[in-house]
């Protein structure tokens, strides 16, 4: 194993022995130990007591973070006619139909969120193998298959975050930039945790939220107390 760099070693030492912190304590610790030359993202990883291979244990949803993500979202919309015009007026970066399908099939994916009107799904469905693994496939359950394309585009641009349980029951997302003040980051953490809590599937048995970790893009992680993260009173 290679020798740790001074920055990494110092960060690990600062985090050593600290676990099950309050949201505010964890955010303050992460912000204080970020010393890279770019604005890192605050990331949350939640270990859930579910097996997403079973349909009745799949966790997925969407949440509008109160303070946004700090990230510029590039939005693509599959639509025709007036709905295509609505999408463009709402700020969509890419709008198209068969032409957009061909662009995606060629491997050119220059967007972070994909929205489609219901009539476009036969076309979008052909892109499942390309968009699915990237978690970009439009889905009515998270509001990305809709006739209200303008609202969907505005929501995506305004800091809405989608989440989906991955293999092993882990939900992961970026929920803000470290340049945000501590209160705004804590509010985002609690909003995200609350949304995942509400998305508890019917098939979940035993402890649903097992562990919650916060980290920065380049920094070590620290666990936060589940009860504290679920507490809106501290926000």
Quick overview of this protein structure:
The chain has 235 residues and is α/β, with parallel strands linked by helices. It contains nine helices and nine strands. A four-stranded antiparallel sheet has the order 7-1-8-9. A three-stranded parallel sheet has the order 4-3-5, with helices on both faces. Strands 2-6 form a two-stranded antiparallel sheet.
How does this structure look, described?
With 235 residues, the chain is α/β, with parallel strands linked by helices. 32% of the residues lie in helices and 20% in strands. It has nine helices and nine strands. The protein has helices at residues 6-15, 23-32, 81-90, 98-105, 121-124, 128-131, 149-157, 182-198, 226-229; strands at 41-48, 60-64, 75-78, 94-96, 113-116, 160-164, 170-177, 209-216, 222-224. α3 links the parallel β3 (75-78) and β4 (94-96). α2 (23-32) crosses α8 (182-198) and α3 packs parallel to α7. The protein is globular, with a radius of gyration of 19 Å. Pfam families: Ribosomal_L1 (PF00687). This is Large ribosomal subunit protein uL1. Belongs to the universal ribosomal protein uL1 family. One of its GO terms (cellular component) is ribosome.
